[in-house]
Write a structure and sequence with these properties.
Helices cover 29% and strands 17% of the residues. With 184 residues, the chain is an alpha+beta fold. It has a domain of 124 residues: endopeptidase domain like (from Nostoc punctiforme) (endopeptidase fold (from Nostoc punctiforme)), CATH 3.90.1720.
């Protein structure tokens, strides 16, 4: 009986120690499915988002805020804009918004795209909405605590720039040639 119990124990432990099967890998040259990103219905929605963002300039900053009447933080501002303009519900966190949107090269930025910065010692800790001509709208927690327009060339932002993302539909704007970005 002891011998049978010991064999059963060895068999159970050996079963737990085996590695699970590796997931299937695509064949070389096979198409890799593109990740799913949040996107607006058209590029026009992004242009409208940029115009809407300008209407929020001088609104109060409030940590965690996503309502222009009571105050906005950076991700709350972006979420509020895209919910009202395009009916999109974005996360209320800059890093999560970055993960849910497609990368775009800085040289290809268009109004309504999102620009990200490392302002707290971690990537994608701040987000703004690109207006064009190297300018963006954001809700800073410092410098007056109002939604304002800034330049990407301002040394503070230039040194903290993390990249850009878009909510443009993939059929209107192809994937960016950003290192690590998926290609179609």
């Amino acid at each position: 009986m002891r011998r049978a119990a010991a064999l059963l124990l060895v068999w159970l432990v050996a079963g737990c120690a085996t590695r699970p099967p590796e997931p299937a890998r695509p064949e070389p040259g096979a198409a890799v499915p593109a990740p799913s990103y949040i996107a607006a219905a058209s590029q026009d929605a992004l242009t409208e988002a940029a115009l809407y963002a300008l209407a929020l300039v001088d609104r109060h900053y409030r940590y965690g805020g996503r309502n222009p009447d009571s105050g906005l933080d950076c991700s709350g501002m972006v979420s509020h804009i895209y919910e009202n303009v395009a009916g999109l519900r974005l996360p209320h966190n800059a890093a999560q918004i970055a993960a849910a949107t497609r990368p775009v090269e800085r040289a290809a930025l268009q109004p309504g795209d999102l620009v990200f910065f490392n302002t707290q010692g971690r990537a994608y800790s701040h987000v703004g909405l690109y207006l064009g001509e190297n300018r963006f709208v954001h809700a800073p927690s410092s410098s007056g605590k109002y939604v304002k327009v800034e330049s990407l060339d301002k040394p503070y932002f230039a040194s903290r720039y993390n990249g850009a993302r878009t909510l443009a539909p993939a059929f209107e704007r192809p994937y960016a040639a950003v290192p690590g970005a998926p290609r179609r």
